[in-house]
Amino acid sequence: MSSDGTPVDARPWPGLDVVGLRILVVGFGVSGYAVADQTMQRGASVIVVDAADTPRHRERARILEVFDVEVRLGAEHTLALPEDADVDLVVTSPGWRPDQPLLAQAAAAGIPVWSEVELARRMQAPDGPAWLGVTGTNGKTTVVTMLETILRAEGLRAVACGNVGLPVIEAALDPEGFDVLAVELSSFQLHWTQHVDCEAAAVLNITEDHLDWHGGLEAYARAKGKIFEGVRVACVFNTADDLTRRLVEDADVVEGARAVGVTLGAPGPSELGVVDDLLVDRAFVEDRRRQAAELGSLADLAHLGPHGAPPHVVFNALAAAALARAHGVSQAAVREGLRAFRSGSHRSEIVAVGTGIAFVDDSKATNPDAARASLLGMEHVVWIAGGDTKGADVDTLVAEVSGRLRGVVLIGSDDTPFREALERHAPAIPRVRVPAGDTEDPEGRSRLMREAVDAAAGLARDGDAVLLAPAAASIDQFTDYAERGDLFAAAARAATGTQDAEDTQEPDGPEGRA
């Protein structure tokens, strides 16, 4: 019960009033800080707990404590609910598993456990911004940032948020008010979310990822599919991925919501696809059987790869266009937005070129399927791979790309999955293992990446690419994928004597991945 005697789940929403609500925020990362800040401002009583007692956390704690938010740092505070305070609602950071002791205790006690996304959806005013949601194993960030660019080309106040950019709660409660939110949602966020209620949503693809967290592919896919719950206009799926279609079929949507397919082939009715070199919409037209709308051409995406946009980028553009069209965006704005879009950092970004070798940062390729997209876009590549595989199988990936490998440099605290796959499928390919060393301090992490880049450069030939596409998460050795990519870029520029990729001429070699 809340302080006014009303169960939290029974309070009217959207527009949930948190005045007097006693909220426990579990995890003090970006979303945890945002939840504490936004709910404190609206009259909630807030306690934050996190196992990590770091200088950054202590600095944030000092800011919030001025406004009577209590922050408790240290592992002992995350083992159980606080004994000295009643709790109406637990808001958890996305990476915390359901079997974490505090969360399990809260669930057993009947205390709601929500994600930041769930809280944001409930607190947003009824006339607040529309949500266009995106999830999938790969391509999420590219699609939401493409979507943001398209929406802005239409003249809408729009922002990419969620698993990228602003926390959802900050975007949903922004005092100036957005028209539309392009919301990227991870499987972790969706696991803890009961009501997404998007105007339109897309599941781009489902491949093995985070299986150790979810316990298997079925549970992982089920979490992804929650993004379709409550959709009002369109559920966008990948016609080449039957699992995404089944998630649409199983979803509880608002009556009248339609399934909209995205294909790289010629589209059928209620699909977007490619005809010759044109991006074509047969879903959001008056007569889907007889009409089609031209949204742009492959030439409008040519800037997204040295040899034009690779297929997965074209697919991402079509998915973003489908969501924008579901919101009523014009054909002209779709084309203008795609022309204006630029891919972000750590997504097949050429960071240095020297002696005929391109150094490409795709640190965002944190699973085998994402790495496959980069590797298959290159003819000859020295691959820097390794990290925390999260239970995913790398054997199929290695077998598929072995013919393109000039050499492999392995990082990661445990290289066993990669080493065994290479021994089976590419035993003759030169391989270098970079010792894990001490990566607790920044210099140790920097040294590791310098050694990896130097080893890769030694294996590369004129016209090759050195590609950081680890096919694994970074958490075993780096702060995050961004630090891993930044250190790679710095080492590549040092090795080639260049300052910045923008100061170099892009080679004729590798195609990029958004």
UniProtKB/TrEMBL annotation:
Keywords: ATP-binding, Cell cycle, Cell division, Cell shape, Cell wall biogenesis/degradation, Cytoplasm, Ligase, Nucleotide-binding, Peptidoglycan synthesis. Residues 493-514 are annotated as: Disordered. Belongs to the MurCDEF family. Its main location: cytoplasm. ATP binds at residues 136-142. Its EC number is 6.3.2.9. It comes from Brachybacterium halotolerans. Residues 134-253 form the Mur ligase central domain. Pfam families: Mur_ligase_C, Mur_ligase_M, MurD-like_N. The lineage of its organism: Bacteria, Bacillati, Actinomycetota, Actinomycetes, Micrococcales. The keyword Cytoplasm applies. Residues 500-514 have a biased composition (Acidic residues). InterPro entries: Mur-like_cat_sf, Mur_ligase_C, Mur_ligase_C_dom_sf, Mur_ligase_cen, MurD. It comes from the Bacteria. Residues 346-471 form the Mur ligase C-terminal domain. Cell wall formation. Catalyzes the addition of glutamate to the nucleotide precursor UDP-N-acetylmuramoyl-L-alanine (UMA). The gene is murD. It is found in: Cytoplasm. GO terms for molecular function: UDP-N-acetylmuramoylalanine-D-glutamate ligase activity. It catalyses: UDP-N-acetyl-alpha-D-muramoyl-L-alanine + D-glutamate + ATP = UDP-N-acetyl-alpha-D-muramoyl-L-alanyl-D-glutamate + ADP + phosphate + H(+). This is UDP-N-acetylmuramoylalanine--D-glutamate ligase. Pathway: Cell wall biogenesis; peptidoglycan biosynthesis.
